């Protein structure tokens, strides 16, 4: 499986979450880039975030964000 643009957008959005504070969510505004809005909706549909426009990480989303941010750190 290769990382297409859609998957990359989802990974980029997961990397925005602050893992040191579960009270920090994110909000994707209506005037955001369409790719960002779509990524948030897909993450919600997959059960990784609580709202279609961001919100908070679910338990599964937290694991995904941890792996995403660890991979980003390793590759840098």
Q: SSE order in H/E notation?
A: HEHEEH
Helical stretch tally:
3
Give the DSSP E fraction (strand runs of 2 or more residues). 5-15%
Shape type: globular
How many individual domains?
1
Average predicted confidence as pLDDT: 96
What percent of the residues sit in helical stretches (DSSP H or I)? 40-55%
Ends apart, CA distance between termini: 21 Å
Largest sheet: 3 strands, antiparallel
How many strand segments?
Answer: 3
Q: Indicate the low-confidence ranges by residue numbers.
A: none
Order of strands side by side in the largest beta sheet?
Answer: 1-3-2
Walk me through the structure.
Helix 1 packs across helix 2. The longest helix has 17 residues, at 59-75. The protein has 76 residues and is mainly alpha-helical. It has a three-stranded antiparallel sheet. It starts with a helix and ends with a helix. The protein is globular and about 35 Å long. The protein has one domain. It has three helices and three strands, in the order αβαββα.
Tag the structure with descriptive keywords.
76 residues, 3-stranded antiparallel beta sheet, 3 helices, 12% strand
């Amino acid at each position: 499986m290769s990382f297409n643009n859609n998957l990359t957008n989802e990974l980029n959005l997961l990397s925005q979450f602050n893992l040191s504070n579960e009270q920090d969510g994110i909000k994707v505004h209506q005037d955001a880039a369409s790719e960002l809005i779509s990524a948030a909706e897909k993450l919600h549909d997959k059960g990784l975030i609580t709202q279609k426009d961001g919100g908070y990480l679910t338990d599964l989303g937290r694991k995904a964000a941890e792996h995403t941010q660890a991979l980003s750190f390793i590759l840098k």
